[in-house]
Design goal:
Layout lengths: L4 E9 L3 E2 L2 H6 E9 L5 E8 L5 H11 L3 E9 L2 E17 L6 E9 L1 H4 L14 H9 L7 E5 L21 H11 L3 E6 L6 E6 L8 E5 L8 E8 L5 E8 L6 E5 L11 E4 L4 E5 L7 H14 L4 E8 H4 L8 E5 L7 E13 L2 E10 L1 E4 L7
Parallel strand pairs: 8-10, 11-18, 13-16
Antiparallel strand pairs: 1-2, 1-5, 3-4, 3-19, 4-7, 5-6, 6-7, 9-10, 12-17, 13-14, 15-21, 17-20, 18-19, 19-20
Amino acid sequence: MFKGFYLTLLIGPVVPVPVPQVVLDALTGVEVTTAAEGLSGFQLTFSLSNKSPLHTLFLIAGGQTPLLRVIIIVTIHGMPHVLMDGVMTNQQVSPGGQPGQSTLTVTGEDLTKLMGLQDFSGIPYPAMPPEARVVLIIAKYAVFGMIPLVIPILFPDVPIPIERIPTHKGTDLDYIKQLAADVGYVFYIDPGPVPGTNIAYWGPEIKVGVPQPALNLDMDAHTNVKSLSFNFNTAETTLPIVFIQNPLTKVPIPIPIPKVNPLQPPLGVIPAPITNVTVLKDTAKLSPMQAIGRGLAEASRSADAVSGNGTLDVVRYGRVLKARQLVGVRGAGMAFDGLYYVKSVTSTIKRGEFKQSFSLSRNGLVSITPKVPV
């Protein structure tokens, strides 16, 4: 599609195949959004004439096949990068400005869409901790190349069958997201590492690992971002307090929950001051492990006080910026330089250009690392 980058589009039910050349010739734009939390999605834009075969390939095929899978791959320097593995959810035709020229817009979501189609309420999970339930649910979708990556919770809570038996509530997606929210975890499906496979991740936002090449700001010839701005928000930092009830005296004991997580080490030296105290009154009826997990979930939501938003040209940056990983920032000043966690990335591909908009987050000001890897 453009120099140095090659786009591959695979479409089909369950096991997609490369689309015909006529489909690629009609493709005018691709937009893919990847987020650490929530659903990821895509949008494909095609030019559509009255005699175009796209009428049959998408409108009819999309109506006859309930699950039309789409895989979007970008190859850079010989290395394929899977931007999206999802399913179509909507096709829309808009009339063009000239006779016989219309626009077909295909939108879709990642494979979590499949997990929200069927209600499985009532399925029992005797003596199974949350992580075991998640693995069992993800196993249903192995036909789509879904591989579970589940991190055990820090404070395990294994229900005793004679006391209580957890049951499934709602769809698979609703139940997994609820289990994640109760312990401060996230759930998402990361496409790749090879086309046709996906990593279903259930765990904390892991902010460790090898960072991506640095984003350079205001560095003359080394500048590789088009724009980048930061915000330091101290109005929403919270210290949650949970209550644990003594089973003998029935007296609730308040316990403050600090923002401490071994899988989320601090990226900044100066954290935001605590401005709010949140009392979680409904935790007294829970078990001690459940109450602590609820407190950790509340603390993790308010930990990141520094945020950044920007755009870049992939050709100048030299690679695809990926969400859910670390990245370095240089040239923004002592307070904002350093490592950040990439919360979300939106990739926009047109003929001759490949741009990305992104959002970053960090727990505080001033980097903990003296130098940022280039």
